[in-house]
TrEMBL record:
Gene3D superfamilies: Naphthalene 1,2-dioxygenase Alpha Subunit, Chain A, domain 1. This is Aromatic ring-hydroxylating dioxygenase subunit alpha. It holds the Pfam family VanA_C. Residues 91-266 form the Vanillate O-demethylase oxygenase-like C-terminal catalytic domain. It comes from the Bacteria. GO terms for molecular function: dioxygenase activity.
Length: 278
């Protein structure tokens, strides 16, 4: 295993659900224990303390030596937002596949029918994608898509504007039209914990402007969306995400996926990836 993989930050627990008994889990194929110790949360693996921190409702750990700080989500500190810990979904797929699926707009009408998409509104219009060198992140902007129910707070169908951001190999952040507060963005994230190369745990988290919807309904709405994705993810072939051109044929709608794969390869992040045709 190469250093770039071990030197990233990964979610390993939800702070609000970490009881006195702690949590035993895995990270990159290695056993990890998350526990309270002297009033603080510690993360250990193989008798060694791992660098750790708490942010966005989660405990984050680095199996190696962090090369840069945990990515910043400024909206997490914005007054008036509701911070929603959605929980955990285990998925039998590559952690990179989980992130890539979150970046895919074209599947909305077919997998999330009458919620995030519906026929005949299936076309993905032109949008912009770039690897922003100054921050070393993948961004997709000017994404527009018609959605029957873009959010739990939405009263009907609207054309939703999206921005996608990939600040770390196993993290994706979505900024989307906020129905109750035009001019602001709802923030929906996917934090992925790689248990091994073909098994992961996914921790969705949201920062929303929504004063009316009960917290249980917000959580249920997002869980419903991701559980619809799970069966698709678990049946994708190859199981690992191909990084080399030609292993899968992209379309115009896949520009974000293409940039994500190129960015992973450039960074040397290959855990959960397929590099050559089988």
């Amino acid at each position: 295993m190469t250093d770039p993989i071990r030197d990233e930050w990964y979610p390993v627990a939800l702070v609000s659900q970490l009881g006195p008994e702690g949590r035993d889990t895995r990270l990159l194929g290695e056993p990890v224990r998350v526990a309270w110790h002297g009033g603080a949360i510690t993360v250990t693996s193989g008798g060694r303390s791992l660098p750790s921190q708490q942010r966005y409702g989660h405990v984050w750990a680095c199996p190696g030596t962090p090369q840069r700080p945990l990515f910043d989500i400024p909206e997490a500190d914005q007054p008036g937002r509701r911070l929603v810990d959605v929980g955990l979904v285990r998925v039998k797929c590559s952690p990179l596949r989980a992130v890539e699926n979150f970046l895919d707009i074209a599947h909305f009408p077919f997998v999330h029918t009458d919620i995030l998409g519906a026929e005949p509104h299936t076309e993905v219009g032109r949008y912009d994608v770039a690897i922003r060198e100054e921050v070393d992140e993948v961004w997709a902007t000017k994404v527009h898509f018609y959605q029957p129910q873009a959010a739990k707070s939405a009263a009907g169908g609207i054309t939703t504007e999206y921005m996608y951001r990939v600040p770390a190999p196993t993290v994706s952040i979505l900024y989307k039209t906020c129905p109750p507060r035009p001019g602001e963005w709802d923030v929906i994230t996917l934090f992925v914990q790689p248990l091994d190369e073909e098994l992961c745990e996914v921790w969705p988290w949201m920062a929303l402007f929504d004063d009316d919807t009960p917290m249980t309904d917000l959580i249920h709405f997002q869980q419903t969306i991701f559980l619809q994705d799970r069966s698709i993810l678990e049946n994708q072939l190859p199981h690992r995400l191909p990084l080399d051109p030609g292993l899968e044929i992209p379309t115009r709608a896949d520009l974000t996926s293409v940039a994500y794969r190129r960015w992973l390869k450039r960074r040397g992040y290959t855990y959960g990836a397929q590099l050559v045709a089988a």
